[in-house]
Structure formats: C-alpha cells, structure tokens
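Sanity check

After download, print the first record. It should look like this:
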Amino acid sequence: MDRKIRTFKRTLNKDDKYNTKIKEQMDIKNFQYQSHDKKRYDNLILDCIRSYAITKRIIQLPYDTQRRIYIFAMKNYWKNMTLNQPLRPIWCDYKKYLDNQLKRSIIDNVHFMHLEFNTLPENKKWIPGCTCNFCQNYKKNHRNEVDEILNKIVEDEYYFLKMLGCHEPFVNKWNQYETFYGDALNYTRIITFDPLKDMFEDNIEASPHDSPIYFSQELSPS
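Expected structure tokens:
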C-alpha cells in the first residue's frame, strides 16, 4: 500500500505595504481642517439650524419652555454620542500596528531595517537570516550566493556586521544575536536576530518538485 507524502508550506508575510489607513488618519490636512476651518464650519451649521421651520416655532415659545426643550435635546444628544462614538483613542490602531511589526522582528526574525516603516522596497538589500518577502525571494533566486555568504558568516562572526556596515565598538541591539535582561546573577536572554536561520530552515516551494525534501518516488512498505 502506497504511503502519501505530506508536505508543509510555511506562510510568509504578505507584501510589505505601509498601513494606508494609519497614514490617512494621521494626515496633516485632517488636523489643519480641524484647527483652521472648525469655526467657519460651526457658523455654517448654526445658519442652517436657524433656517429650519421648527427652530422659528421654538423661538416663539415662552423662555421656560425653550429651556426645557434645550435640556431634553442635549440629554439625548450626549446619550447618543456616548453610546455610538468609539472610545478608542486615535493612536490605538497605530500602536497595534507597531506591536505587530515588532513581533515580526523579534519572533519572525525579520531584520529591523526591513520592517515596512524603515526601508523603502526599492532600497532593500538581502540580509542573511531575514524572513521578509524580499529576502525570501532573493534567497530563492540566488541560492549559491546565499550559501557562500552563510559559510563566510560561520567562519567569521563579524562578517555579518561588516555586511550591514556596523563598525562601532558597541553593536546596535537589533544586529546582535541575543539580548540579555537583568543582572549578572539573575538574567534572561532573548534571541534578537539570527543571521544563520537560513542554514537550518528552508521554505518548501509552491511546487513540491522544487523543494529539497521532495521524493521522486512514492514510499512503499518494505
């Protein structure tokens, strides 16, 4: 009885695209409108309200009745505003977006410089170990070059830093393999970025024939 071969495909991140919703929210024109045109907008609304037939009728009522109508209307207005207006601050979506980007850097091993908000797609260069779409595609199309550079990093631990142009005595934490937290007796270490990740992991291609674990023949029991 033939045994079926199972293949697994690791899902890569979607194409890098800076969050358009956040950009629209933080557009300077929105704030300029609120600061410069708000008074003119309010005056326009008041002129429209004064032209309503019901407004002219309310003005003819006694002052005490007008006051009661005003209190009743404002209570309903603030009640609806409180229930229908979202209470999340404007920066909440952006904070969630940044947390997701940091997760890609710390957990998914995407290099900090290849996050969506750090480098334009046309300026990206391949970084060993990075799992962003650009680097994964580059690795797929330049396997010999990638293997050669990875072997150089194994032989010389500073070769990776030279590729990134890091020549300072103190290396930026985003280019270190691991980061230590705590003191000398009680500390925790977290892997920040692993440039040799590509040596131990290989994505299974869309076609199993291109995968290094593809078998040309079905396995059969002995």
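If your output differs, re-run the checksum step. Summary of this record's structure: The chain has a mean pLDDT of 77.
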